[in-house]
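TASK: fixed-backbone design
INPUT:
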């Protein structure tokens, strides 16, 4: 950072003439103390320099310098302990300040200006731009940025994650926007590109290799901790932050991407080309476009594919949400194929469900047809269980239900009524009553009930009690046996005789 000449002159005057301290100068001029120290150390040249004051650390300087030369990253706390064992008694805070001035600095490295041929290279990277709140989900807002190294043309696309499917989709859309691909694409050592690296031995992500094979480009990661090798995409991300995203308002992700595409086609493309100020980036890109590799005729297959397990409920869990599937596929392993718009559930090559993708979390996305079929299946199962119980207790019930169904009656209500009669009258009486209703050609529970009542009245029996009382109530309401009162008369007679 360059310090203004008038500020330098003012700091030197206040220090040498007014004898102000560093802190006083910094407070009064409203600058940082390091700025004042830089001015005093680099510009102060007193006519009569005073001799250096003796410091407690002076006897230990040779040892400290030798140790730091051998171990440049050794902490000041460890050094303080080492010199303390050798007799140093200074405070640790002041010692850390002194070590900061003694620690060897790496030599400044000079960089060559890299020039690339048209159509030779692209640079690619992710940029993090905060988060978006979608319902209960807090999704990261990630910018996929790709830059043509020669013309500096930028492709910008925002996603709600940085997973592999978004990474591949960014490439495909960038190549479509440029109407071609370069021969080399530079990456940082992110997991989407490099799974493992030992020196020059690199294991690429197989999905990236499939994309590179389809578009015929060479994926090339930069050296570890050498971000300057892809400085053009790094500067492009900073340019996106300052020129496009700062104070930007948008309604949703789709609106943000529409604005991003308009910006890259407009403001970004109209800026000056760094290689020649007489040209714009748009003009440089038009010249470079002829050197790009032609796109293949077939599209690259996109979409996130992963296996999912269906539990006892007909739903699959994907990206924090549950999506319904037909109830016939419970307890099975299916495949989810998802993109930004749709979530498809496959059983082998057969699609069994399709839902709009939900970016919320803990949501339940259902196809009404899936739920309705499950409800009908459960209802039919209840009817079948009831029919089985009736058939076992009163075999004639099957004939009655068949005739009732032929007449259009509600078999569910008839079955429920017959079950209540079974619990109240018993299996034998119900069988006889059903046969009587069939003989009268009235296949309805009311006819069965009347037949049971006629049999009861003919036998002079009381109506059966359907309510089953708890055991403690039955014991409480049990009849009480009367006690013989003759013993009381004998007791009274004995008392009179006495």
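OUTPUT:
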């Amino acid at each position: 950072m360059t310090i203004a000449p008038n500020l330098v002159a003012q700091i030197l005057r206040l220090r040498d003439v007014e004898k102000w301290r560093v802190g006083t100068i910094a407070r009064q001029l409203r600058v940082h103390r390091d700025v004042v120290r830089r001015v005093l150390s680099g510009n102060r040249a007193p006519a009569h320099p005073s001799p250096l004051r003796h410091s407690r650390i002076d006897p230990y300087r040779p040892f400290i310098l030798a140790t730091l030369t051998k171990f440049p990253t050794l902490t000041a706390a460890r050094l303080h302990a080492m010199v303390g064992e050798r007799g140093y008694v200074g405070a640790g805070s002041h010692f850390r300040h002194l070590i900061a001035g003694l620690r060897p600095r790496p030599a400044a490295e000079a960089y060559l200006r890299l020039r690339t041929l048209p159509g030779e290279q692209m640079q690619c990277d992710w940029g993090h731009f905060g988060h978006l709140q979608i319902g209960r989900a807090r999704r990261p807002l990630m910018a996929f940025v790709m830059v043509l190294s020669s013309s500096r043309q930028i492709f910008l696309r925002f996603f709600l994650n940085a997973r592999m499917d978004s990474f591949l989709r960014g490439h495909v859309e960038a190549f479509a926007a440029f109407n071609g691909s370069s021969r080399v694409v530079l990456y940082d050592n992110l997991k989407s590109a490099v799974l493992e690296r030992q020196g020059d031995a690199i294991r690429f992500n197989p999905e990236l290799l499939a994309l590179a094979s389809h578009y015929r480009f060479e994926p090339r990661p930069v050296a570890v901790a050498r971000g300057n090798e892809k400085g053009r995409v790094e500067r492009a991300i900073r340019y996106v932050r300052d020129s496009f995203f700062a104070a930007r308002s948008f309604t949703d992700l789709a609106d943000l991407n529409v604005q991003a595409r308009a910006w890259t086609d407009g403001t970004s493309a109209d800026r000056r080309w760094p290689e020649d100020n007489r040209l714009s980036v748009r003009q440089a890109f038009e010249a470079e476009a002829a050197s790009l590799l032609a796109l293949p005729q077939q599209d690259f297959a996109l979409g996130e594919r992963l296996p999912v397990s269906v539990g006892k409920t007909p739903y699959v869990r994907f990206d924090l949400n549950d999506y319904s599937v037909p109830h016939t596929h419970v307890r099975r392993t299916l495949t989810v194929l998802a993109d930004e718009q749709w979530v498809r559930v496959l059983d082998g090559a057969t699609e069994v469900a399709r839902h709009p993708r939900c970016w919320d979390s803990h949501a339940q996305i259902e196809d009404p047809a899936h739920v309705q079929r499950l409800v009908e299946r459960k209802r039919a199962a209840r009817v079948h269980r009831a029919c089985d119980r009736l058939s076992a207790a009163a075999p004639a019930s099957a004939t009655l239900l068949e005739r009732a169904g032929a007449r259009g009656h509600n078999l569910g209500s008839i079955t429920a009524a017959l079950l209540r009669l079974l619990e109240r009258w018993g299996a034998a009486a119900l069988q006889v009553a059903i046969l009587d209703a069939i003989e009268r050609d009235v296949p309805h529970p009311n006819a069965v009930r009347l037949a049971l009542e006629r049999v009861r009245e003919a036998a002079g029996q009381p109506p059966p009690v359907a309510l089953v009382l708890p055991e403690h109530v039955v014991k409480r309401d049990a009849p009480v046996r009367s006690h013989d009162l003759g013993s009381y008369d004998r007791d009274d007679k004995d008392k009179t005789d006495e």
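COMMENT: The chain is about 45% helix and 20% strand.
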